[in-house]
Prior knowledge:
This protein has a domain at 37-172. The protein is built from 6 helices and 8 strands. It has helices at 2-24, 58-68, 110-116, 119-122, 128-134, 167-172, and strands at 37-43, 46-53, 73-74, 81-86, 89-95, 103-109, 183-185, 192-194. The strands form 2 sheets. Strands 1-2-6-5-4-3 form a 6-stranded antiparallel β-sheet. A two-stranded antiparallel ribbon has the order 7-8. It is elongated and about 125 Å long. Mean pLDDT is 73; it is low at 21-32, 180-209 and 217-222.
Amino acid sequence: MKKRLAHGLKLMLVLSLVMSLLSACGAAPSVQDTYPLESVSGSGQSTSYVYRAADRTVPEVAKELSDQRTPDQISAENTERMFLVYQDQYYHLQQDPKKPEDTLVEVDSKEYVRQNYSSSFLQGYLTATLIGNLFDTFGGRGSGNYRGYTERDTYKPSAGSYRAPTSNDKKLAPPITVERKGSITRRGSDKDTSVGSGGGLFDRKKDQSRGSIDRNKSSGGLGGLFDSPKKSYKKPKTRIGGGRIMRRR
């Protein structure tokens, strides 16, 4: 039993060492939060997934995503609509017209953009070179007039209609990661102290008392830790001769 336990501990140490080495070598940041998946459209290589970022503006979400992973291209800051391009994925950030405090994050595959968007619409957000490379198979122009999830009722996508995601869709959907602040609650206190907000874990409050030791005070008449005894003892005086020891009276 002891041998198995020791073997298990060694295995855990090895795994933790490997993970730390991977993180040191520039591994992807840890996933701390995921926006809920709201709608799905398309199939195969032509897919579109829509997430909801509650209480987040378009520029805030764009910054969170670009901080997690630097995009190949990002459009100019805009409170209503922005694009982030990641190789074969296009992130279309849109302010929800029905709930303006929320941002809808539409993750479209490259094929979905080709089949549904028009180059004239994307010209206001992406470079001409990127648009040309994107629509090269369509003669430099897109085949649809789709303008994003928020306008799907007016500009319908040709690749299919949006629907509520199934459990299988949630497994296949690309994750949207953001970084959140953690918090630490002090034991014995109801106050929540955010990390990095000036109330760190090791900060000492001004009204907290510090312990001290006073060498000159006794505790309850019993004498302090470093108090000298009240009575001093004298060494016995000895007299040589006669084999006797005389103690001073």
